[in-house]
Amino acid sequence: MPPETQARISELVKAHKIMVFMKGSKLMPQCGFSNNVVQILNAVGAVYETCDVLSDYEIRQGIKEYSQWPTIPQVYINGEFLGGSDILIEMYQSGELQEKVAVAMAS
Description:
Blueprint: H1 3-15, E1 18-22, H2 32-43, E2 49-52, H3 57-67, E3 74-77, E4 80-83, H4 85-94, H5 96-106
Parallel strand pairs: 1-2
Antiparallel strand pairs: 1-3, 3-4
Helix pairs in contact: 1-3, 2-4
């Protein structure tokens, strides 16, 4: 990945307590998995930012290398990569996601 793409991704992750790289936006998700993540984060009252990977090919490819995770969406909380839709569902069901969101929003 080009260094400037890595720097852009790092800045996005650092600038926002909760950052989601997804297809579409939180107002208009463009795939079911991205929609799942938006619905879960909205359900827990998270304040988060999104980056539409469909509108930025370099980010779309670079985020997979950055996280060493092949699929999108990708969720970061306080700079930590959590995973995608399936992992967020599991974390939500166990209550772990609510804890992480509460800590992020309190810090």
